[in-house]
Design goal:
The chain has 244 residues and is of the alpha/beta class. Helix content is 46%, strand content 12%. The protein has 2 domains: 112 residues, 3-Layer(aba) Sandwich (Rossmann fold), CATH 3.40.50; 116 residues, Rossmann fold, CATH 3.40.50. It contains 12 helices and 8 strands. 46% of the residues are buried. The mean pLDDT is 95. It comes from Prevotella communis.
């Protein structure tokens, strides 16, 4: 299968090491990976702010670039969710082939590749952050509000990493307060939610917090640094690719 690697704009600009780790990990598993260099933002910031007209040309470009691939894989649950859940409606009347092939790296490794062995070693205590889009739009873990069997694809993959100790905070799928535009428009509420969430991660005794969205990790990292809290943040794919 041919994989198109989609590296979201904020990952490219602020956390390029996450994109590099994604590429290295996919290649280490013997997969055929391509990175279309003309790729742009998927349109999520504009769409979430209500400016769908501005998101439309970006969605068209995304579909044009990625429709030839068997799968489109991204190290960002929120961007993958926006493409898969919102591009089809946005592109009504236009071709829309890429949206249904787009997956977050965690669900792709877990559900498609079905990884059962990794070379990675990460000898730290790590608290898992379940971002809202990953839980409720992509099903990376079970939402606590539903009475259904518990599962967590992030934890399933992390358990393949040698030396790691995995923990979860109290209220494991509660929002960290980022929410894209929400963090800009409701700064005080966003900050309070972030402080509560970081403190719950700290209460686990973890040295690191990990998750599938650099945006959520960025929000919590900013709060932790401002409050001088002793905890670090790392994208889950960097742990899965550790040592490559």
């Amino acid at each position: 299968m041919k994989i198109g690697l989609f590296v979201p704009c904020y990952v490219d600009a602020l956390y390029p090491e996450v994109g590099v780790s994604t590429y290295r990990l996919l290649k280490s598993l013997g997969l055929d990976v391509d990175y279309p260099e003309r790729q742009t933002c998927c349109g999520q910031p504009m769409g979430n702010a209500g400016f769908e007209g501005m998101a439309l040309p970006l969605a068209k470009t995304f579909d044009e670039l990625f429709s030839p691939y068997d799968y489109v894989v991204a190290p960002s649950a929120s961007c993958a969710a926006y493409v898969r859940c919102f591009h089809p409606n946005l592109l009504k009347g236009h071709t829309c082939e890429a949206a249904g092939k787009t997956m977050d790296i965690v669900e792709f490794l877990h559900d498609v590749v079905k990884v059962d062995h990794l070379q990675a070693r990460f000898p730290y205590r790590v608290s898992v952050h379940n971002s809202c889009h990953g839980v409720r739009e992509l099903g990376l873990s079970s939402p606590s509000e539903r009475h259904e069997p518990r599962y967590n694809k992030i934890i399933d993959l992390l358990q393949l990493v040698r030396g790691i100790e995995i923990v979860e905070p109290e209220r494991p799928d509660e929002c960290c307060g980022f929410g894209g535009m929400f963090a800009v428009e409701e700064q005080a509420v966003s900050r309070r939610m972030g402080i509560d969430k970081v403190n719950r991660h700290l209460a686990t005794g973890a040295q690191y917090v990990t998750g599938p969205d650099s945006s959520c990790l960025m929000h919590m990292q900013g709060i932790a640094e401002k409050e001088h809290l002793p905890i670090r943040f790392i994208h889950v794919v960097q742990i899965l690719a550790a040592g490559l």
